[in-house]
Amino acid sequence: MQRLLPLLALAGLMAACGPASERPEAASNEPVYLNHAPEATYVGKEVCGTCHPDKYETFTRSQMGRSFKPATLQNSAADFEKARPVYDPHNDLYYRPFHRGDSLYIMEYR
Q1: DSSP 3-state of 106
Q2: Alpha-carbon distance 43 to 45, whole Å?
Q3: What's the predicted TM-score (pTM) here?
Q4: What confidence tens digit (pLDDT) does each residue in 48-74 have?
Q5: Is the pLDDT confidence value at 20 over 70?
Q6: Residue 89 has pLDDT above 90, yes or no
Q7: Taking a C-beta distance cutoff of 8 angstroms, is the pair 108, 95 a contact?
Q8: Are 39 and 30 contacting, i.e. CB atoms less than 8 angstroms apart?
Q9: Whole-Å CA distances, 86 to 3, 72, 74, 75, 77
Q10: CB contact burial 75-101 (16+ within 10 A = b; e otherwise)
Q11: Is 65 within 8 Å of 49 (Cβ atoms)?
Q12: What is the predicted pLDDT for the residue at 1?
């Protein structure tokens, strides 16, 4: 019995390490999603809203969704009268948002 157990273990190990019955298929070059295809183009967020109205509605009201609009004073919620410079110690630079007419800008300075 003591000799049989190691032989059974060895036989099981050899069976488990035997040759694979099938080779895995090569990866396809076809994109998984249509929007990954080279001919895919941006159709605009309104087109997305036709199939996903709930997501479109919440996206257009989010900060990210509002960032797609032109940077104008009307589209901004910033209070430029109270805007203070932001300091970047890594680059030793200051940044100050301001507007000129309806256009928004960021000044970079030391």
Answers
A1: strand
A2: 7
A3: 0.46
A4: 899 999 999 999 888 888 888 888 999
A5: no
A6: yes
A7: yes
A8: no
A9: 78, 20, 23, 22, 18
A10: eeeeeeeeeeeeeeeeeeeeeeeeeee
A11: no
A12: 63
Residue length of the chain: 110
Which pLDDT score, from 0 to 100, does residue 88 have?
98
Strand order in the sheet with 86-88: 86-88, 93-100, 103-109
- One-letter amino acid identity for 75? N
Q: The tokens of 85 are what?
A: 């410079």
Tokens of 94: 């200051």
Q: Where are the domains of the chain?
A: 29-68, 70-110
Quick one: three-class SS letters along 73-92? CCCCCCCCCCCCCEEECCCC
If one counts every other C-beta atom within 10 angstroms of the C-beta of residue 24, the result is 6
Contacts (Cβ under 8 Å, ≥6 apart) of 98: 80, 83, 104, 105, 106, 107
Summarize pLDDT for 27-46 with one digit per residue, the tens: 777 778 877 888 888 888 88
